[in-house]
Amino acid sequence: MGVILRNTIDEVRKSKERFEFLGREYSTSQRRRKNWIHKLQNDKGRETEALNEIEAVARSYFYNLFTARNRGNYDYVLTGINCCVSEGDNEKLTTTYTNEKIQEAVFEMGAIKAPGEDGFPALFYQKCWHIIGYEVAFFCLQILSGDMEVSSLNHTNIVFISKKCKPINVAFSSN
Which InterPro entries does its entry note (predicted)? Predict the structure, then answer.
């Protein structure tokens, strides 16, 4: 009797796990289908459904959005603000970076918050610090001291997550 009951409990547990797995898969695929962008409107108002054109519309929109433009002289905004960096604060701000400070910063990061361009979350660097710590710290110190060209590191991936069902215009997709 005990063996039959144990087997039944195991079967129920396995069925529950299978159902939960399928439920996650179902909801993920449903969400993917719902969030899929089927068409977009370019800046001239023409709609497109071609994937490469949708990509071009989104790329153009975000390129224009995040491209710096000459905005004029705004020095007058700061005229009424007094400089208030104390000598102690200035000393902290100008101290030389060290391997220890780099390690401290890495270990203060949220372990699985957001992976970097390399796809590794901070947890990877924290757990493997004894293996890769020296190289990571050396790399960071080169950047912080200005000894390394960093323009190639200044790239990011922007993911468009629409808040509107079936958006057609990137600029107004959050309405």
Answer: Retrotransposon-Effector_Assoc
